[in-house]
Amino acid sequence: MLVFVIPLKSPQVSRSWERVCQLFERTVRSACNQTSPNFHVIVVCHEKPNIEFTHPKITYLEVDFPLPKETNPVARGDTDKGRKILKGLIYAAQFSPSHTMAVDADDCVSQHLAEFVEQYPQNNGWYVSRGYKYQENTSYVYLTRKNFYRMCGTSNILRYDLNFLPENPEYNRGYGYYKYYILHARVRDVLTEKGMPLAPLPFAGAIYILGYGDNVYGNAKNFSFNFFNRRKLTKSIREEFCLSSIV
């Protein structure tokens, strides 16, 4: 089974909680749109989002961690995200997952992930080499042919034991304690150094959403868009990733 872990920011630190909820609803619809029933979604949040979508495969795990503004001002968002991912991964054990995937609360994932993962339950895991970038409310996506995992946090599928979960997890630590769960671009290298390399996912695995105010890490101004990588946002892409338009 594949378990998705989605860390969601608090309404107290969101520029627009309504917008965060809209984007999250699209993300969780995408995660639940799998072609295989062998998946679960764990959402770790300070407060449950205000959305209409429900699904029996979703678990909301509410936490009372200190708000990011009350922690280290240098890495406050990262620390909150790391705490939530760790909490979700620990909780995932009750579903006996073969693999887990951290998903940013604004991105979309391919509907084929769970079906693919269940075919290889002993595999170390995969990194998303190919994926799409999407700027909100446009009619195109941009194909990233390699190294997608370096730019997007929705990019690593790990065999559960390779999360290296602490025996006695703590949630009052600083950035360094959680960095393995945050630094998505480093996970591949870390596991290669340990002799447990990840394989490239053999298809485009996610869509990285750009260009809205509450995205801490992604801003369309920080990315180049190569015309030759531009693809029409077709019905098949929308359906595979459950990518709906948000006004």
UniProtKB/TrEMBL annotation:
Domain of life, per lineage: Bacteria
InterPro entries, alphabetized: Nucleotide-diphossugar_trans (IPR029044)
Protein name, as recorded: Glycosyltransferase 2-like domain-containing protein
Lineage of source species: Bacteria, Bacillati, Cyanobacteriota, Cyanophyceae, Pleurocapsales
